[in-house]
Amino acid sequence: MDFDLKEEHGMIRDMCRDFSRQVIAPRAEEIERTGEYAYDVIAQMAELGMMGIPIEEEYGGSGGDWVGMHLCIEEVSRGDVTFGALLDVTTSVVAQELDVFGTEEQKKKWLIPIARGEKIGAFGLTEPDAGSDAGSVRTSARAEAEGWVINGSKQFITNIGLDNASIIVIAAVTKKAKKGRGRISTFIVPKDSPGFFLGKRYEKLGWHGSATHEVIFDDCRIPRDNLLGDPAKGFAQHLAVLQTGRISIAAMSVGVAQACLDESLQYAKERVQFGKPIGSFQAVQFKLADLSVAIELARNQYLKAAWLKDQGRKHTFEAATAKLFASEMAEKAASDAVQIHGGYGYMAEYPVSRYYKAAKVLQIVEGTSEVMRIVLSRELGL
Prior knowledge:
With 382 residues, this protein is of the alpha+beta class. It has 10 helices and 10 strands.
């Protein structure tokens, strides 16, 4: 069993790490404070090919794999997790769904600009009454002679508020059932479609640099060929790409936790109390030692899940395990980092206060910790 990264994986990791340190990290506090969208940073990410790592070259990508993509997501998130979230939604979810289920025409029209980073994608599954119970979507799509008419709303939609967001891939009911879930299909909805309305921008606890909006469809009209994949398997398609999204959340969590460790190590060496650096006290040493162990385990697990995906092998258990363990680990890492910093850790000028706000949502997005435990229970045959 070889645990060494391939040369190309090492190159991706190092490139993204350098970019994160030199470009993202110095801007992170300002972005969080102002809530402004850093289009210049996104443009530089696109120039480096970050959005298209696992996509074939003919569709605008670099022909890499999902191990490389998730190494990139970890390193970018180490600088600011909101940029990891942008990659998660754009590449792991939207680009992948277009790549796997799209027609040749759809790939040429929509996938290529997204893989190149010229446009950004958004994903719409969550609704006011469909969160963890994702199958309870009420947004509907009605077939007419000239296309589809969509009505309903989506909430907590990442990326759609960006000026360069081009499409949202949504789930909508196309056939109601007398009992149980109706038929759910998947659609590509361009942002400039008639009847598409960008709703309120959510005021969040953290992630202020991430565009999170409500989306409203009021007799929104799209062409017939904007149906994505099998009309009877839209929900299954969404769940398939969300499985990759869970690996991405694990990678983001590791990035946040690693940033917590980096800052805490440096602080523990410099902060003097009782005549010596606090890093010489066992209470602090043990926190840092435990954190280093947890990060290593979480990193190995998300890489295993990504590797299994690249091999075309089943990875439901591994993806859910990575997401559950890494996201809960990241929250504890951020809490311990604040504790190590003491009163300074609660001050906005110290990065660990930002990490603390950023970590919690990782246990919620792409399936809550509770949902992950349900998935794992089912994998155990319960």
